[in-house]
Amino acid sequence: MTDLKVEADPAELGFDADRLLRVDRRMSRYVDEGLLPGWLTVVARRGKIAHVSAYGQRDVEAGLPVEAGTRWRIFSMTKPITSVAAMMLFEEGAFDLTDPIHRWLPEFTEPRVYAKGSSLRPVTEPATEPIRVWHLLTHTAGLTYGFHHAHPVDALYRTAGFEWSTPPGKDLAACCEAWASLPLVFQPGSEWNYSVATDVLGRLVEVVSGRSLDEFFAERIFGPLGMSDTAFSVEGEAQEQLAALYVPAPGTRRAVRNDAFGDGIKRRPVCLQGGAGLASTAADYHRFTQFLLRGGELDGVRLLSPRTVRAMTSNHLPGGADLEAFGRPLFAEMPFDGFGFGLGFSVLQDPVKAKTLSSVGEYAWGGAASTAFWVDPAEELTVLFFTQLLPSSTHPLRQQLRQLVYQALV
């Protein structure tokens, strides 16, 4: 599915076309300065694409341009898809959001929580609350990521082989057993911490459905939504469309190719990471955002009820807190001020506190290679941005994209 073209005059959709070109001018400077290899962005309103633009190269060394059909590693933009999969099973009565996950994943029966000490000699205590399904969906389970470098438990993850990827040879079931053997960072439900929770959620989907995660995605989500170019690997002729992965050079921040990490997507992974594993195209992910904006339905195919989508895109943090108050100040795919968290998405509560032009109720997420999307139900707006620069904290692309899109809305 690579058809991506403007479907309506921007003016009919409430945009000033000249102002929309500011998006292209600003983002192109990153490429001209050598800071990004290339990018593609899609702006749609009321279900119609108002603006599509691409600039730069998907493979700088080979001189290959960014195209509509370019395949991108979407990293954590996998998380909302896994969350949708889980909520489809929830709608079938497979589990309640309050159910302890150890009913299906017995390795999490008696979690221990870090209390004090170093990563070499941690002191732990029993969890006072089981990890529940909603803890996984909201990143409040007490799990973490090795790449945070912020807590002794993060170091334990790295020692166990979990930093930016999973240990060779371990499938998702084995990874869950490894994570269950490590201490939690806090008591389940007591804080927010960006983590492998969505990977564990993917394993829950596998056990409950009796299907591997790639099979579930293909049969229940990608097939019905027409997302034919989204998968856990890019193989065969499709590799000709694959964007190379880049990292910033120390000092200059110029984009430097990193095939050692980037080539992993060229073969089916042993571990199907529900939190980070997919590659996709702009056209495919555009269909996913339209499915969300329309309340769980696209082209006559309904995967979720509107009520479920509303629940997923509401703030679930206790007391209506934002991430700044309830979260740990670490790397994540969004700023924390004024943003809450739902079931798989950040949720904007206070645009003034967040210093953004976006609307209350906007929901979003991004990926580690600087990809991003958001859905603004109040304006019936969806925006996608794709590039391949790891990590996403290198440049303020997402904040700038928001201000550039919204200033064009007249």
Can you characterise this structure?
The protein contains 13 helices and 16 strands. The protein has helices at 17-32, 79-91, 133-138, 152-159, 172-181, 197-209, 213-225, 259-262, 282-293, 306-312, 323-326, 351-354, 397-406; strands at 38-45, 48-59, 64-65, 72-73, 112-117, 122-126, 246-248, 255-257, 279-280, 297-298, 301-302, 339-341, 346-348, 363-366, 372-376, 381-386. An eight-stranded antiparallel sheet has the order 3-2-1-16-15-14-13-12, sandwiched between helices. Strands 4-9 form a two-stranded antiparallel sheet. A hairpin with a 2-residue loop joins strand 10 (297-298) and strand 11 (301-302). The longest helix has 16 residues, at 17-32. The mean pLDDT is 96.
What is the topology?
Blueprint: H1 17-32, E1 38-45, E2 48-59, E3 64-65, E4 72-73, H2 79-91, E5 112-117, E6 122-126, H3 133-138, H4 152-159, H5 172-181, H6 197-209, H7 213-225, E7 246-248, E8 255-257, H8 259-262, E9 279-280, H9 282-293, E10 297-298, E11 301-302, H10 306-312, H11 323-326, E12 339-341, E13 346-348, H12 351-354, E14 363-366, E15 372-376, E16 381-386, H13 397-406
Antiparallel strand pairs: 1-2, 1-16, 2-3, 4-9, 5-6, 7-8, 10-11, 12-13, 13-14, 14-15, 15-16
Helix pairs in contact: 1-13, 2-6
Domain Beta-lactamase-related: 23-403
Organism: Prauserella flavalba
Pfam families: Beta-lactamase
